[in-house]
Design brief:
Shape: elongated
Strand content: 5-15%
Structural class: mainly alpha
Distance between the termini: 52 Å
Helix content: 55-70%
Number of helices: 27
Length: about 625
């Protein structure tokens, strides 16, 4: 195939990504995908209805959200197994974002929920088109774990009134819902409580004893039977009601400026949360299926699924962990499984729409209690609590914010706190004093503080393990000013980046030490860092003969500049040079090494960066073609 034809084919696969996996579709794969799709359709039937209730929407909207968005995400996404649809986290954010603006269940509420969905999709497409999907990586795992745990508690409290058969007028917040339920506990309906608890216990037992069976569907069936026996006339137990037997109807979101302004904060938060959910689920499954993912394409698929879904009565959707896991374990091979699941669900809605009329609302509440319990990731919470205080703080703050403030602000709080801790870590790079290990068989530099090695009274060798940028300059400068030794050698192989503020700080420190009779040197500096130092004449002022290719050459040159009188009284004898000759008695070849090093540094500093070589640092020997003179061990 010619290059022109390959370029044209690549262009088409970029516009229509499903062309990449359609060649994988065979008769065997269609059979496997159809079986997995049928299983998923059965699972999403109770889930969709339950999640719609969380979102404050009529039950059919949960099923609509599992049809059109799932098809679009399968066609335009990257993962072969990810299935999109309504999720508990998405549903609770939709409810908390829209309920302050309209009464749940009303036409106005539905229109605003669809507007929020459209805005979410647009935000996701903007992030994907700008190739800013990497921003999702800044949402730490602790934020997601804390938010989902908090969302689970919010779901439980919000469903207590349905479980107890209460009809309460609340503000929709965690605190108000909890307070209102406590105030009206004496009004609890024992029939509703019995049906709800039966559903919960049945789902738990079936899942444990018969893990391959649809525990949610069977639990709802048992609860419906119990509700019929306890209240055949449906006087004491509220029912979900029948859903219309129709295709997802065409809808037009309300795009008035006031509504867009009011929903913008929630839309941005829910778009980020949705991308985090989808990407983390897709990566988890890809690690088992050995599929190579395109995160940006997955974001495009998620964005399109929400944009298109908003015009077909589908509220905010994202990757579903339960359905995706079932899809993979059921043997799905291609995204056709998600398409089959949507088509099967559509058939079920057409043929058995009246079945929801027999679903008790307390049973749905009991089902949601189990869903909420499964949302809490106790395993990773324990790991985070044991790992680091900063991550634990992020987890606790996000969890608490989820309960006490608007959910979208809880996500922002967690993300901002994560970034604060990250910046704190990067602004305090670890600085280690290193010295030759006297017990090593081969030349090796080790942590002097850890090994408690004696220091040289005239030379301190340190390694900065982090980038020297404006945020870290103050910390590094304070450390250098605390070093009493007159001469300091900075080993730079841990510095991937130095900005102009960092370079200026190095120059200031060098001038300060020279004024006091000492000096500052660099070794093992990466080419990219050296190019930054070379700008604005900083390298020339530092001195090209003060920058060395490795530690051995640096020590060999610096040793000649030490005070012989101090060396005569020193008992540490740290360096090999200490055992050969006192400072000033230059060893043969010392001046040659200095000249060669200066030439190499000058050539390296003037060498332009090579496109695409950011991950491979070029050494001075590679650039100059000069073989280094024999040097002392590094």
């Amino acid at each position: 195939m010619s290059n022109q034809a390959q370029g044209k084919a690549k262009k088409w696969t970029r516009l229509l990504p499903f062309l990449q996996w359609t060649p994988m579709v065979t008769r065997a794969s269609v059979r496997a995908d159809a079986q997995a799709g049928l299983t998923n359709a059965i699972i999403v039937l109770p889930q969709g209805v339950a999640y719609a209730l969380i979102a404050g929407l009529p039950p059919e909207y949960g099923l609509y959200a599992a049809i059109v968005p799932a098809i679009i995400a399968a066609l335009f996404g990257s993962s072969w197994h990810l299935i999109s649809g309504p999720t508990a986290a998405m549903s609770i954010v939709v409810f908390t974002s829209v309920s302050p603006l309209a009464t749940p269940g009303t036409a106005e509420f539905i229109a605003l929920a669809l507007t929020l969905t459209l805005m979410k999709g647009v935000f996701q497409l903007v992030l994907a088109s700008a190739r800013l999907g990497i921003l999702v990586n800044f949402v730490s795992h602790s934020v997601v774990i804390g938010f989902t745990a908090g969302a689970a508690v919010v779901i439980v409290v919000s469903q207590l009134q349905n479980l107890l058969g209460l009809s309460l007028h609340t503000k929709g917040t965690f605190t108000d819902n909890g307070w209102q339920v406590l105030r009206h506990l004496n009004d609890a309906n024992p029939y509703s409580l019995a049906v709800g608890l039966t559903t919960l216990v049945a789902c738990v037992l079936i899942k444990k004893l018969l893990p391959r069976w649809p525990n949610m569907l069977m639990g709802l069936a048992l609860a419906s039977g119990l509700a019929f026996l306890l209240d055949p006339r449906q006087e004491h137990i509220a029912m979900v009601g029948a859903i219309p037997a129709s295709l997802p109807p065409f809808s037009i979101p309300d795009l008035s400026f006031s509504n867009i302004s009011a929903l913008s904060s929630g839309a941005l938060a829910i778009s980020i949360l949705g991308l985090v959910e989808a990407s983390s689920i897709a990566r988890a499954i890809a690690s088992r299926s050995h599929q190579r993912l395109d995160d940006n394409q997955e974001f495009i698929g998620q964005g399109l699924s929400n944009v298109v879904g908003a015009f077909f009565s589908s509220y905010a959707s994202s990757g579903s962990f339960t359905r995706t896991g079932v899809n993979f374990t059921s043997g799905a091979r291609t995204p056709m499984a998600a398409i089959f699941a949507s088509l099967f669900l559509l058939v079920i809605v057409q043929l058995f729409s009246g079945i929801t009329a027999w679903l008790p609302i307390p049973a749905m509440a009991g089902l949601l209690l189990m869903v909420a319990w499964n949302l809490i990731d106790f395993h990773h919470i324990k790991m985070i609590m044991r790992a680091a205080k900063s991550e634990t703080t992020v987890l606790i703050v996000t969890f608490a914010a989820t309960l006490l403030v608007a959910l979208e602000f809880a996500i922002y709080a967690g993300v901002i706190l994560s970034l604060v801790f990250y910046l704190k870590r990067t602004s305090h790079p670890r600085i280690v004093t290193i010295l030759p290990d006297p017990n090593a068989k081969h030349p090796l530099f080790t942590n002097a503080e850890k090994k408690r090695l004696p220091y040289c009274p005239q030379l301190r060798i340190i390694r900065i393990e982090g980038s020297l940028f404006f945020g870290a300059v103050n910390h590094v400068q304070e450390y250098l000013q605390s070093v009493r030794e007159p001469r300091v050698l900075i080993v730079g192989n841990g510095m991937n980046f130095v900005d102009m503020v960092g370079a200026e700080m190095l120059l200031q420190e060098a001038k300060r030490r020279r004024a006091e009779g000492g000096d500052l040197y660099l070794s093992n500096v990466k080419s990219g860092v050296l190019r930054i130092i070379n700008r604005n004449n900083i390298l020339k002022q530092l001195g090209r003969d003060h920058i060395f290719q490795n530690k051995g050459q640096a020590i060999h040159r610096i040793y000649e500049q030490l005070d012989p009188s101090v060396c005569q009284t020193c008992t540490a004898k740290i360096f090999q040079e200490c055992h050969l000759a006192p400072p000033g008695a230059a060893a043969p070849g010392a001046s040659t090494i200095s000249t060669v090093e200066a030439v190499k540094v000058e050539v390296l500093a003037k060498t332009p960066a090579i496109v695409g070589a950011s991950k491979v640092e070029t050494t001075t020997a590679d650039i100059t073609g000069i073989t280094p003179a024999p040097a002392k061990p590094t």
